[in-house]
Amino acid sequence: MISNKDLADKLYDIADILEIQNAKWEPRAYRNAALTISGLSDDITVIYKKGKLLELEGVGKSIAGSIKEYIETGKIKKYEELRKKYPIDFTTFRKIRGLGPKRVYSLYKNLNIKNVHDLKTSIDKHNIRGLEGFGPKSEEDIMKNLESFMNVKNDRLLLGYVIDYVDNLINKLLKSGLFEDVKVAGSIRRMKETIGDIDILAISNKPDKGMDFFSRMDEVKEVIVKGPTKTTVSLGIGTTCDIRILQKKSFGAAMQYFTGNREHNVKVRKIAISRGLKLNEYGLFDGKKAVSAEDEREVYKKLGIDWIPPELRENTGEIEAAQSHSLPKVVEYDELIGDMHVHTKDSDGMNSLEEMAMAAEKNGSKYIALTNHSKSLPVARGLDEKRFNEFNIQIDKFNDSERQIRLLKGVEIEILKDGSLDLNDSCLAGMDFVIGALHQNLRMGSKELTNRLIKAINSGRINTVAHPMDRLIGEREKLKLDFERVLEACKKNDVLLEINGYPERSDLPFDLVRKAKEFGVKFSLGSDSHRIEHLRFMKLAGAIARRGWLEKNDVINTLGYKDILRLKR
Ligand code: DGT
Ligand code: CA
Ligand code: CA
Over 477-545, what HEC string results? Predict the structure, then answer.
C-alpha cells in the first residue's frame, strides 16, 4: 500500500536529481505535482481508481503515468534508475535548511556523503570547510542547521547529548547557594533514549530568589511561565525545562510522582487506593496523615513494593515483580569496568591508540577493546590483515608499559554479502575480541539477511554482533531480521549481542535486550567511540542494559581483564 507521502517524496527526489542534471523545466513540473499530492485529503489510490489523476493540479500525462506505475507495481522505473546513479537521502536532506540539491550533490561527489549520518561525521572531522564553494563559515551553518533538524525531528532530543548538559545545569543551581538539593526527574532520570523535556526538582528556603536565579541563567532562551513553585523556560539546546521547588518533607513523594512514567504512576496510585491510602506529589496519605513523603524508598515500601530503579519504571511488569520481591538486581554503572567497542584514527576515529587508552583510563576503565573497521569498509579506512598485525604489535607494546589500563586486540569486522568475514583466519586468531557487523548491502529480504547474519554467528569466529538492528533513531528503521532465529543462533554458539551506547544508535533497543535475556543470550557493551569525548556513551549502554533488566552476569563488561581474555575465539 503506497501513501501520498511516499509518492510525493519520490517525485521530489526525481525533481532534485533532475535539477542536479541541469534539466530545464522538469524539476519544477515534478515539484508542482509533489506539492499537490502531499496536500491531498484523499488517498491517491482512490483518485487513481476514479480515473481522476489528470484533474489534479500540476499532473500531466507523463507524471500521471508514473503515478499509475507506482500504484500498480510499487515502483517508478525512472525513479529507480535515477536513484541508482545518485544514492543520496534527498528526502531527509530537503528538511535541512540551506542544503539544496546541488550542494547535496557536491557533498556526495567529493566526500561520499549519502545521508545525515555521513554528514555529521564529515562535520565532526571538519572535512567540509575545505570543499570548493563551502568554507568554514558554511560548514558551521550546515552544522547548526543539522543540529536544529536533529532536535526538531520528533520534538525529542537524544539523551546522550543532554545528560552532561543537565548535570552542568544542576551543578550551577547547587553552586548558587539558593538550593538545598536539586535533582533531575522525568524521562532523564529513567534514562530513556530520547527525551521530551527536562524536569528538575529542587528544595529551597528562598524560592523567589531561586526562581530568579534559574530564569536568568545563560542557558535560558525564554521564560515561558514563572511562578514561586513552578517555572518553565525554553533552553538554547532546543527543549524546555520545568523546575519545581518543593519542601524537603515531601521531596521523595515528588521524585516518585515526577519520575513517571505515567503508566507506572497510575498503577502505583491504584495500589495505594486498594490499601485505603492516597498517593500524590505531596506524599502517601492515610486520611490527612502522611504515612511517608520525604524518602522515595519509603513511599514504595509502605505500599509493599520494593524500590524500583528509575530505568525500569515503564509499567512493563516491574511493579508486579517488586511486589513479589523478584525484581532483578540490575547491573550497576560502576560494575561496567571496560568498553568493548572503541575506534582509533587508524580507521575512522579521530584519536590515537594512546589518546583513547589514556582518556578511558581517566574515566575509570580497566580495559578497552580497540575494534577498528576491517578492509571491506573503505569509507571508514578499514584495515587489512597486514595493518591489523602492525596495529596489534602497538597494542602489545602498550600493554607491556607501566600503564594501568589494558587494551584488547579487536576488530569490527564486515560480514560480507554471503555471510563470510573479510579477514583471514590467521589474522583473526590474533584477535582477543571480534565484533561482527552488517554495514553494507542491507537491502535484501528478511530471510536472506537473517541467514547471512546467522552464518557469521555460526562461524565460530565472532564474539558479538555490532549494533544488531542497525537502527538510527529518527533516521533509519531497524533491520528486518528474524530476531528469534538470531537469538537461537547466538545462544547455540555463545555469541553475544552488543548494546551500542552511541546516542543515535542505542542498539540493541532495551525491549529487545529484555527479550534476548529471556532467551538466555548475554551481552557486550560498547560506546562505539570515534573520539575521546565519545567514551562517555558507555554510561548510555549501561542505561539500556538496566532498562533491559540485565544483571551483572548478563554483561561481559563486568568481568576482570583476565576473564575477558578467556572469551578469545
Ligand atoms: P518526556 O518528557 O516526554 O520525555 O517524558 P516524561 O516521562 O519526562 O514526561 P513529562 O515531562 O510529561 O512528565 C514527567 C513525569 O511527571 C511523568 O513521567 C509522570 C509525571 N506525571 C504524572 N502525572 C502527571 C500530570 O498529571 N502532569 C504532569 N505534567 N506530569 C505528571
Ligand atoms: Ca520530561
Ligand atoms: Ca515535563
Answer: CCCCCCHHHHHHHHHHHCCEEEEECCCCCCECCHHHHHHHHHHCCCEEEECCECCHHHHHHHHHHHHHH
pLDDT in tens, 205-262: 999 999 999 999 988 888 999 999 999 998 877 789 999 999 999 999 999 999 999 9
Q: pTM for the complete prediction? A: 0.77
CA dihedral in degrees (295, 299, 304, 306; nearest 10)? -50
Take residue 476 and report the three cell numbers written for it.
533509519
Among 225, 262, 266, which is best to mutate for testing ligand 1, by the most ligand atoms less than 8 A from CB?
262
C-alpha cell at 213: 536565579
**CATH code, domain carrying 148:** 1.10.150.110
Q: Is residue 373 domain-shared with residue 389, that is, in the same domain?
A: yes
Distance CA 88, CA 93 (A): 9
- Is 354 part of any domain? yes
Final residue of a structural domain among 246, 280, 309: 246
**CATH value at residue 418:** 3.20.20.140
Residues with CB under 5 A from ligand 3 (ion): 197, 199, 242
Q: Amino acid letter at 150?
A: M
Give the CATH number for residue 240. Answer: 3.30.460.10
Tell whether 328 is covered by a domain.
no
Q: Do residues 396 and 495 both lie within one domain?
A: yes
Check if the beta carbon of residue 320 is closer than 8 Å to that of residue 539. no
Q: What phi, psi does 327 have (nearest 5°)? A: -65, 145
Q: Is 80 exceeded by the pLDDT of residue 153?
A: no
Domain boundaries, position 35: 4-152
- In tens, the pLDDT along 75-110 reads 999 999 999 999 999 999 988 877 899 999 999 999
Single out the residue in 222, 246, 270 at which a domain terminates: 246
Could you tell me the distance, in angstroms and rounded to a whole number, from the CA of residue 434 to the centre of ligand 2?
38
289 C-beta closer than 6 A to ligand 1: no
Number of domains in the chain: 4
Is the C-beta atom of 199 inside 6 A of ligand 1? yes
DSSP H helices in 41-134: 44-49, 61-73, 77-85, 90-93, 101-111, 116-124
The C-alpha atoms of residue 371 and residue 360 are separated, in whole angstroms, by 14
Question: How many whole angstroms separate alpha carbon 365 and alpha carbon 359?
Answer: 9
- Judge if 313 and 339 occupy the same domain: no
96 and 185 assigned to the same domain:
no
- What Rg value do the Cα atoms of the chain yield, rounded? 27
